[in-house]
Description:
Elements: E1 5-9, H1 19-28, E2 33-37, H2 38-41, H3 49-56, E3 61-67, H4 75-84, E4 102-108, H5 126-129, H6 131-139, E5 143-144, E6 148-150, H7 158-187
Parallel strand pairs: 1-2, 1-3, 3-4, 4-5, 4-6
Helix pairs in contact: 1-7, 3-4
Amino acid sequence: MAxxxxxxxxxxxxxxxxxxxxxxxxxxSIEGVDVLDLYKVYPDMFVDGSHERHRIDGKSTIVLQFPIxxxxxxxxxxxWIDRTFSYGWAYGTNGNALKGKNLLLxxxxxxxxxxxxxxxxxxxxxxxxxxxxxQTARFCGMNWLDPLVYYHARAxxxxxxxxxxxxxxxxxxxxxxxxxxxxMSHGA
Length: 188
Ligand SMILES: Cc1cc2nc3c(=O)[nH]c(=O)nc-3n(C[C@H](O)[C@H](O)[C@H](O)COP(=O)(O)O)c2cc1C
């Protein structure tokens, strides 16, 4: 069976990253997870949509790991979605390739959680900024899973970072196990 989880890490400077680099390493340690380092694979920013669609075939879950940049994902992740989730594949006539797959966002923010509230500098809860991703999932018939959020990513305690990495690992393991259970029940 192909690895059921695709973990897409979108960070333009992973060498300087604290949180996202740690979480990408956490994901790499889990059997059943393929890790795609977008900025490494596409340094010129030209995403090969057809290649990416093949990469998703057979996956049950897509995880998007990224730092929040100006209330959204870094640009190359948007380009990846634009090029990959195409008409006739992700949506529209016969466009059901993503139907039933899970979408999990795993996000790091610079700000503390309290900054994402009516009294905070960002004025809105983080969930509201994630609406385009949520609706994209819905439009393509995907299951939206509760995002994993790591606030205050550059200044948090080391123990906290490690604990969050463990939480991500458990979540990924659960998704891998759920996929193999489903495959066994289909094969039975
Ligand atoms: C261009 C840019 C825009 C950013 N915009 C936001 C933002 O809108 N909200 C926020 O909380 N942090 C913002 N940050 C902070 C990053 O989210 C934070 O540095 C990152 O999640 C830390 O993860 P890393 O250690 O993996 O780089 C921004 C950082 C950069 C470089």
